[in-house]
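Changelog-linked ticket: NAP example.
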Amino acid sequence: MTTNLFDVTDKVVLITGGASGIGKAMAAAFVQSGAKAVVGSRTLEKVEGAVEELNKLNPGNEEGPVAAGVALDVCSENSVERAINKTMDLYGRLDVVINSAGIMVKKPTVELTAEEFNMVHETHVTGTLRVCQAAEKIFREQHDGSIINLASISSFVDLVQVTAYAAAKNAILGLTRSLANEWAKHGIRTNAIAPGFVPTDINRKMIEGTDRGRRIIEHTPMQRFGTGDEIAGAAVFLASPAAKFINGHTIVIDGGYLASGIGDSFAPWAMPEEA
Ligand SMILES: NC(=O)c1ccc[n+]([C@@H]2O[C@H](COP(=O)([O-])OP(=O)(O)OC[C@H]3O[C@@H](n4cnc5c(N)ncnc54)[C@H](OP(=O)(O)O)[C@@H]3O)[C@@H](O)[C@H]2O)c1
């Protein structure tokens, strides 16, 4: 029997896109729960700033700091390999990977270029696959590992004029189920978290102080946006012994938005092009 169902002490988690927004909130939640976090993204100054903040949350012990950073581009196989190797060099193990790297292109679909579509897919879907494949080798050897992918409300309902993003986030559900099915025999659980609307760098301009944001809040039963902290707890849960039979599922955290059953909160066919 497990003594503490929610214990993630000393687990090592690598978080792509972990230097800002939801990924950083997840890193903070792990560090505050006694785990070690490695955060990675393309912008090194941002990564260094995040690591400084994270290490203040938990001063660590004689073994050294509890958070570290790595320059990471999930669109490059070499970069992903380097990030995994650096994590292993620093902490000697890897228990959890969280795929939180993401970009967004918002424009009418007629204007969306194949390059833009592919870039969004490459970052969210192929990027996630790359990180999962690289982690799988370690997880398989340990016969233990937890993969947490970032899905979205747009995995379930349309959010207007973010077609590439929606297609990618739907693919994340399929990817999550496939890995859950294929790798469970190696002790690897794969799940996803689908956050509702949390103002971060990826969407702030679209939803903060805009009509779109107002409509979203109106149609969210809890009448507000979420925060990174409110998403992060589910990641700690999914990595903990309490979730050891949870595999292939997506936890939606949206203040009730999906339950309200209202797509993107307004009719796209009645919307002016610039909305
Ligand atoms: N915020 C929401 O309402 C919401 C809702 C549902 C789902 N999500 C998902 O949650 C995840 C985190 O988003 P967020 O809201 O926290 O936005 P965010 O603050 O913009 O975080 C995304 C991070 O991804 C990094 N990134 C982008 N491309 C990358 C690449 N090629 N390689 C490595 N890192 C890369 C960015 O840093 P660099 O530019 O430095 O690389 C950035 O720090 C995303 O997958 C997003 O789609 C967000």
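Closing comment: Example verified and attached. Residues 16-17, 19-23, 41-43, 46, 72-75, 100-103, 123, 127, 150, 152, 195, 197-198, 200-203 surround NAP (CB under 6 Å). The CA atoms of residues 79 and 130 lie 10 Å apart.
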